[in-house]
Amino acid sequence: MNGCCVPLYDTLGDSAVQYVVKHSEAKMVLAQGSKLPLVVKAVAGLGATQLSAGVVYWGEGPQEAVKV
């Protein structure tokens, strides 16, 4: 699949997470369910084509973040 892993730390903040996702040309974000609100907030400004594979999470996620 020729993919690479780009770590995102919750201590980075919204703008840094968005910057890393955008400039790494990420197609998918994988996150723990409890971190879903941070991910949703950070990637909300990206276009739909940026994350063409979407956001995948495991565990329980807050319902307001899951619905987005």
Topology readout:
Layout (H helix, E strand, L loop, with lengths): L13 H10 L4 E5 L3 H8 L10 E5 L4 H4 L2
Parallel strand pairs: 1-2
Helix pairs in contact: 1-2
Protein name: AMP-binding domain-containing protein
Organism: Haematococcus lacustris (Green alga)
InterPro entries: ANL_N_sf
Which secondary-structure class do the elements indicate?
alpha+beta
How many separate domains?
1
Which parts are unreliable, with pLDDT below 50 for 5 consecutive residues or more?
A: none
Morphology call: globular
Give the integer mean of the pLDDT values: 82
Radius of gyration: 11 Å
What portion of residues is helical? 25-40%
Number of helices: 3
- Determine the N-to-C terminus distance: 28 Å
Largest sheet: 2 strands, parallel
Q: Helix and strand succession?
A: HEHEH
Tally of DSSP β-strands: 2
Organism: Haematococcus lacustris (Green alga)
Protein name: AMP-binding domain-containing protein
InterPro entries: ANL_N_sf
Short note summarizing the structure:
This protein has 68 residues and is of the alpha+beta class. It contains three helices and two strands. The relative contact order is 0.22.
